[in-house]
Write a structure and sequence with these properties.
The chain has one domain: YbaK/aminoacyl-tRNA synthetase-associated domain (YbaK protein). The protein is built from five helices and ten strands. Strands 1, 2, 3, 5, 6, 7, 8 and 9 form an eight-stranded mixed beta sheet that branches. A two-stranded antiparallel ribbon has the order 4-10. It is globular and about 45 Å long.
Length: 181
């Protein structure tokens, strides 16, 4: 059986169709269990890989969608979600129970239970981004806007920081017409 036919991946594929992104899930020949492995397999920039990270704030599970070349700033998550409480990383069994996916293949759509989500604004740098599709060998491409719409994620500039050696993403600033000559 192809990985694309596994129940978890089929759930993601159905969610892709429902969201309007389209059934474009890909089965990679090598594992994309980590952001670096996915970037290597796709021959793309590490930052174009979406890391779907599950956290627990107090007793509520949430998901942060972070660029592959960034680290999540866990202490900023409660404010991003307008929640209070201590942030912790759940056990792998909790992630599987809440999302329906094993770590290494956690997709941002097709979840067992809807989760509040926040999306790293630095992903806007890329025309095409890639997220896990329910299995470590399966991914799907999307645009930033399509994925944010499909997930209903809040957008934040404050949930991640570039990894060592990566320059910070700064959105382009348009010139004010009020003060132009």
């Amino acid at each position: 059986m192809s990985e694309l036919e596994r129940p978890a991946v089929k759930r993601v594929r159905n969610a892709l169709v429902t969201s309007g992104i389209g059934d474009n899930a890909l089965n990679l020949e090598t594992s994309a269990r980590s952001a670096q492995a996915a970037a290597d397999a796709l021959e793309c920039e590490l930052g174009a890989i979406v890391k779907s990270l599950v956290f627990c704030i107090d007793t509520r599970f949430v998901m942060a969608l972070v660029a592959g070349d960034h680290q999540c700033i866990e202490d900023n998550l409660p404010k991003a979600f307008n929640m209070k409480g201590k942030v912790r990383r759940p056990q792998a069994s909790e992630v599987k129970a809440i999302t329906g996916f094993s770590i290494g293949g956690v997709a941002p759509i097709g979840l067992n239970h809807p989760l509040p989500m926040v999306m790293d604004a630095s992903l806007k740098r890329f025309d095409k981004i890639y997220a896990a599709a329910g299995h470590p060998n399966c991914i799907f491409p999307s645009s930033f806007s399509a994925l944010s719409k499909a997930t209903g994620a809040l957008i934040s500039y404050n949930i991640s920081t570039p990894m060592e050696g990566i320059s910070a993403y700064r959105p382009p600033i348009s010139r004010s017409k009020t003060f132009s000559k």
